[in-house]
Amino acid sequence: MSFLRIKQLGILVAGLMLSGCMATQYQSADTSSFKPRDKDLLSKASYARTPVAASFRRAIVDYHRKEAPGSILVDSDSHYLYYVLDNGKAIRYGVTVGEEALAFSGIARVGNKREWPDWIPTADIHKRMGGLPSRVAGGPDNPLGARALYLYQGNQDTLFRIHGTNQPEYIGTSISSGCIRMTNEDAIDLYDRVKVGTMVVVLEPRRSARMASWGGSGSTN
């Protein structure tokens, strides 16, 4: 093989590594582990089954930050949630995050977790969005979706959640009232991995440059 050909192949491999193609392992939703209730309610959902953009599909990626395995980190700018694994890996999920003025950031813990939770709009949401009921029963078209992780600081409920959604078309955007939304399939997957007490780190917006330095926001080499 000529030196020029070897050089061209080297450039190609380097480009693939920088793009994350060689380290990213995309995963399909494994519905075989879903409970009968999950399968029944998801089959009755009336929202559009909009496919998530390829870059926001669930994937195994390299992870170079120092959060302990079992922790959650949310990169608000890049719209990714990471569940940290052993051996420098993480499961990366695409998410919807809050609009800048409403977004949560900081360190919290999972203080509670619920399957098919009721939605109780906060006073602030009632103020911004008139005409809402006081409670919406859990179900396939509930805004909290199939699962919810309740974020606490100390013993105080922050009122922010990581939860499923009936609007999968917005995964990868910043439009929520502050909560972190996932597809219902991803929310079930994360819920089954997470324990009460799990640490959750939510980076403040406009920190993508820092994330890029360790490969967490799309570059997975």
Automatic annotation (TrEMBL):
Pathway: Cell wall biogenesis; peptidoglycan biosynthesis. GO terms for molecular function: glycosyltransferase activity; peptidoglycan L,D-transpeptidase activity. GO terms for cellular component: extracellular region. InterPro entries: LD-transpeptidase, LD_TPept_cat_dom, Transpep_catalytic_dom. It comes from the Bacteria. Residues 70-203 form the L,D-TPase catalytic domain. The active site is at H163, C179. Transmembrane segments: none annotated. It holds the Pfam family YkuD. GO terms for biological process: cell wall organization; peptidoglycan-protein cross-linking; regulation of cell shape. Keywords: Cell shape, Cell wall biogenesis/degradation, Glycosyltransferase, Hydrolase, Peptidoglycan synthesis, Signal, Transferase. Residues 1-23 form the signal peptide. The keyword Repressor does not apply. The keyword Transferase applies. Belongs to the YkuD family. This is L,D-transpeptidase. It comes from Nitrobacter winogradskyi.
